[in-house]
């Protein structure tokens, strides 16, 4: 695998929100098919990374570079990044009243097909796929007709995110604290969904505070994010180490810029 | 984001073309002589002329209403021409073959084919061009069911008793300034009569087109649904893109006799003026229906056009157990101003009304809901539910709610709720993260916001209304 | 124009004192005013016949009127008797940081300040606001110094003898960070007419607790208002309790003139007989990040008429405002009438605004529930009605006032003609 071309390459990324530096020199290389877990204490910049990569307004890249499949990701609009295969599963998915899940998803699928020069999917075909996706994430089919996330419980929202991932078939999935607020049963459903999507040409960044999720989604690499940069990388065993020790030890290993400062 | 929204809103007005039709147009100006000439052109009975003249005299004594939250220069009623008709219409074409092809082309361009083979299945259309009705389709089929659907000018000749009995019975001559003006100078419009116990076999529709410059359009629609009958009626309207403002002052009267039901839908897309507020239609309209026992009137409107809108489709719930509904989407952008809403007057026992109003403001526009719910002493057990939601797009527009609630019956229940929101950054981000471009995202979110109203429209037009909104918002996001 | 207004103008023209420039301005505006009719939006449901017919006169005889005592309340008493300020009822010693004085007795600097602040809070004053500008002669100025917390409430009472006419005016100014409680009250003996306005300037971080009791009933005409100007981080909490009279009208105007100001208004009205009460509550959010919460509840019985107009206006710069208004009404008789008009006027997009209004009968299920427990229907109705209002009384921060007004309201319910 190590010889294949990288899917995502982040080099020395610095980014800020409301003039506050959050990401301070982050580098990361992800090859197709790999699952990378990013762990770290609250406020380490875990969610910020997902927003910066997906191009959310208000998140400013100050320096560094990011390429997706060799293309300059930072030069693209949010929707272009999505069409290029980047998918962010939100920690707190927003509600869009009156817009049905089905309508929303078909528009998204069509936009991405259009970007690839393909025809729109027929409604009948799409409905079939969507129903299958519902089944896979254990959501009643009636959820397709409901407004996007409208009145969904926390677990339903997470499963709805996963369903979108199944339908959009992205190349890079960023799961932002997908485990937060889930009970053990829901967690298993979500993990199974994710595992079913693992393949040689799809990579994952699994952002999480707890090791628990990684019992179900086995990462190839684990990175510890602290103070806006990766302070330690390793294999799956690092997550267990963190589970045992917590994040307190990080305070004894301050990030470089803090030393300089 | 606001910039992108504004950009998206700067769309083309697709119906803004001018048709090259030779017209006979009155010189601008308004006096009793003009009214006599209009009446003479239409060969009207004497009582109709007298009715017009008395309305005109009332109008002269009245003041232009100034309570709406709209601002426009004073209208010079002497600079307007009160009658304009294609010359080819002078000898009343007897069939479609005799209608000026340019007129047919105009409607075709607007998506309303009048040629028999291409007509929208299941929809009969009365096409009104400036001051006259050009053609009414599917007449024979309707006649078989006993339904009368023709221009009001024709109805005055063929069914004078019906017209005389009901015209002005719901909106009295001196009801308000513009209604009085309409009574004096109305030129054409549609007349519908559904006989007892009849369910109208198809949708009825009138399409209004203003073409000539400096003319006003003053149409008058009268729909009478006799006992136990049912009809669904739809009106649409467009006008060319011009720098001058044009006045449209219509009156619509609906009569729903015992157990009858009228569903009246409007997709209003008059020219809204340009981004700087130049040009556009002043849409000053009086629409009102009366419900007798167990009758129901449902108004649905999608208002995206006109530079100034002043319009309150209303229901007088006179009969016991009668029902009034008002579903409205009003979208304003650029410098449009809309002051629109409804009045629900509850007179009978156990009368019910529902008001759902969705206002969307963008650009530098102002959008107001103004409504009245009145429970009279006799309205035992009456109920009203009102919900007004406003959506603001950008920080240069305004969204306003002015509900009047008057109750004089202790057993009547009135509930009013209003909220305001915006297209949130989070919603937009979610859509874009899934690959939708910002324009599509906004139009989708706005459509979702309007869903409760769109679902009340007849199927064919729900799609059209959604599209209209989409075009209206095109280029409006960021 | 009405005879009454003409005579009011004529009387005002004869006055010459330190307020002359403001009075002249008010008279100018009055000269160009139309006498309100049913077509005048602000008076649409409130006919002015009681003003046109009033026989009330300015009385000059000395009378000895005292505000009613409220148990457990020791207030600084600021008393007007038939429109004249009665300094004898004011305590000799005021708490540190408080000053209370007639405007005409102030030194010239303070008088200039008071003059500049006069009538500046409410942008467009209605006819009787202007009349008050022109005819109020004993204008009292209350100031609280910066950072001072005054535990003792100030009670402003306007007392009227039978047949009296009075026009009173108070200006209250709270320095930055100051805290104060003010109670406004009008007590009239019948056939009277009064206008009573108080203007409050609440400086940054100051905190005002406010009460207005409009409990005069019968043949009195009472028109008044409280206007509040809130600066950065200022807070106000206002409670209004009103009965109706021949004509009783209050205008509450809250201006968010600074950011992060917070306003709460709880108002309740209970009308009986042929009473009329009209509350116009206006909130102007001129600056960002303000919050407003209004709860207005009314019960209208017999042949009474209630009018409520609740306007929330969010100006272009008032982003991140959160404003809410809730108006609930119970109609108790088929001759009674309620007219309510909650209004939103919004020019900023990033705001949370909502209003709701209901008019309904008493909750039939709750009534039934009480009846199944053996409570008579009329008793059950009184209980439920009282509960509806009591919820707002419970929110009064001042316990002494809540305990004082509760039995008064209970008594009113007992007398109310419920069907």
Uncertain residue segments of chain C: none
Portion in strands of chain C: 35-45%
Structural classification of chain B:
alpha/beta
DSSP, total strands of chain B: 23
Overall strand count of chain C? 19
Q: What is the topology, as strand order, of the major beta sheet of chain C?
A: 2-1-5-7-9-11-13-15-17-19
Strand content of chain B: 25-35%
Quote the distance from N terminus to C terminus of chain B.
4 Å
Biggest interface, residues from each chain: B-C, 36 and 37 residues
Walk me through the structure.
The complex is a heterotrimer of chains A (261), B (478) and C (419). Chain A is an alpha/beta fold and 261 residues long. Chain A has a single domain (8-260), classed as Rossmann fold, CATH 3.40.50.300. Chain A is built from 9 helices and 12 strands. Chain A is globular, with a radius of gyration of 18 Å. Chain B has one domain (2-473). Chain B has 11 helices and 23 strands. Chain B has helices at 2-9, 32-41, 46-61, 101-109, 139-144, 152-158, 160-166, 177-185, 425-433, 438-454, 459-473, and strands spanning 23-25, 84-86, 123-129, 132-136, 148-151, 190-194, 203-209, 220-225, 230-238, 245-248, 251-256, 261-268, 280-291, 296-303, 308-311, 314-317, 323-332, 337-346, 352-362, 366-375, 383-393, 398-407, 413-422. Chain B is globular, with a radius of gyration of 22 Å. Chain C is of the alpha/beta class and 419 residues long. Chain C is built from 8 helices and 19 strands. Chain C starts with a helix and ends with a helix. Chain B binds chain C through residues 67, 69, 375, 377, 390, 392-422, and chain C through 41, 45, 316, 319, 329, 331-361, 419.
Summarize the structure.
The complex is a heterotrimer of chains A (261), B (478) and C (419). By secondary structure, chain B is an alpha/beta fold.
SSE blueprint and pairings:
The complex is a heterotrimer of chains A (261), B (478) and C (419).
Chain A: E1 8-17, E2 20-30, E3 35-39, H1 46-54, E4 59-68, E5 71-72, H2 78-83, E6 86-89, E7 96-100, H3 101-115, H4 123-136, E8 147-148, H5 154-168, E9 172-176, H6 184-197, E10 203-208, H7 212-216, E11 221-226, E12 229-234, H8 236-245, H9 256-260
Parallel strand pairs in A: 3-10, 3-11, 6-9, 9-10
Antiparallel strand pairs in A: 1-2, 1-4, 4-5, 7-8, 11-12
Helix pairs in contact in A: 4-5, 5-6
Chain B: H1 2-9, E1 23-25, H2 32-41, H3 46-61, E2 84-86, H4 101-109, E3 123-129, E4 132-136, H5 139-144, E5 148-151, H6 152-158, H7 160-166, H8 177-185, E6 190-194, E7 203-209, E8 220-225, E9 230-238, E10 245-248, E11 251-256, E12 261-268, E13 280-291, E14 296-303, E15 308-311, E16 314-317, E17 323-332, E18 337-346, E19 352-362, E20 366-375, E21 383-393, E22 398-407, E23 413-422, H9 425-433, H10 438-454, H11 459-473
Parallel strand pairs in B: 3-7, 6-8, 7-9, 8-11, 9-12, 10-13, 11-13, 12-14, 13-15, 13-16, 14-17, 15-18, 16-18, 17-19, 18-20, 19-21, 20-22, 21-23
Antiparallel strand pairs in B: 1-2, 3-4, 5-6
Helix pairs in contact in B: 2-3, 3-8, 6-7, 9-10, 10-11
Chain C: H1 3-13, H2 20-31, H3 49-53, E1 76-81, E2 84-85, E3 98-102, H4 108-117, H5 127-135, E4 139-144, E5 154-160, E6 165-174, E7 179-188, E8 192-202, E9 207-214, E10 220-230, E11 235-243, E12 247-256, E13 262-271, E14 276-285, E15 291-300, E16 305-314, E17 322-331, E18 337-346, E19 352-360, H6 364-372, H7 377-393, H8 399-415
Parallel strand pairs in C: 1-5, 4-6, 5-7, 6-8, 7-9, 8-10, 9-11, 10-12, 11-13, 12-14, 13-15, 14-16, 15-17, 16-18, 17-19
Antiparallel strand pairs in C: 1-2, 3-4
Helix pairs in contact in C: 2-5, 6-7, 7-8
